Amino acid sequence: MPWNVALNCPFLFVAGDVLSGVCFVGLWDMTALRGFVLLPLAVFLVLGTAFLVAGFFSLFRIRTVMKHDGTKTDKLEKLMIRIGVFSVLYVVPALIVLACLFYEQSYFDHWMVSWSREMCTNKQYALPCPPGPADPRKPEFEVFMIKYLMALIVGITSSFWIWSGKTIGSWREFCLRLRGRRVEAYV
């Protein structure tokens, strides 16, 4: 039975990660990693950053006009700070994940040749030795752990943006309506 079927991964280019056990695209197929993971992540990160910068320029322009008119800008400045903190806490870990994935795809072939060379010297396995000079490169465990941690941090950061006081109030109101209690609406 193939290992990706044993780990309940439904597609051929989706495989179970040896370290985490999570199904992921491009673990053994670097073309799939480049096409389905690296390229979309890089494109969306660049596009998102461009929209973020354009949004900040617009917010600064609005803030300048509001200050010129004598309007209070406290709420707008709080929103700008919140967006800035969120964007840093999202973009930096996303860049680190992207860098770790680039590291994986660039050294994968060297790691496989090194592993094959190591296994062919063991007489327990009847594997032919790959041609060429010895390459002692092995994957760095820390890079993989950093990749997993940063991927989790991106998700946690997103949840902090979503779960604000207004969101919690909306869910509380929804649950009370499900119970049949009447809730007053504030406009």
Keywords, separated by commas or semicolons:
187 residues; mainly alpha; two-stranded antiparallel ribbon; 5 helices; 2 strands; 68% helix; disordered N terminus; membrane
Description of the molecule:
This protein is mainly alpha-helical and 187 residues long. Helices cover 68% and strands 3% of the residues. It has helices at 3-6, 30-69, 74-120, 141-162, 165-178, and strands spanning 14-16, 23-25. It has a two-stranded antiparallel ribbon with strand order 1-2. The N and C termini lie far apart (60 Å).
> How are helices and strands ordered from N to C?
HEEHHHH
Overall number of strands: 2
**Oligomeric assembly:** single chain
Order of strands, main sheet, comes to 1-2
What is the helix fraction of residues, given as a range?
Answer: 55-70%
Range of strand content? under 5%
Query: What separation lies between the terminal Cα atoms?
Result: 60 Å
In one word, what is the shape?
elongated
Alpha-carbon Rg, integer = 25 Å
- Assign the structural class, choosing from mainly alpha, mainly beta, alpha/beta, alpha+beta, or little secondary structure: mainly alpha
Low-confidence region ranges: 1-7
Query: How many helix segments?
Result: 5
Taking the sheet with the most strands, its summary is: 2 strands, antiparallel
What topology does this entry show?
Blueprint: H1 3-6, E1 14-16, E2 23-25, H2 30-69, H3 74-120, H4 141-162, H5 165-178
Antiparallel strand pairs: 1-2
Pfam families: Frizzled
Family: Belongs to the G-protein coupled receptor Fz/Smo family.
GO molecular function, one term: Wnt-protein binding
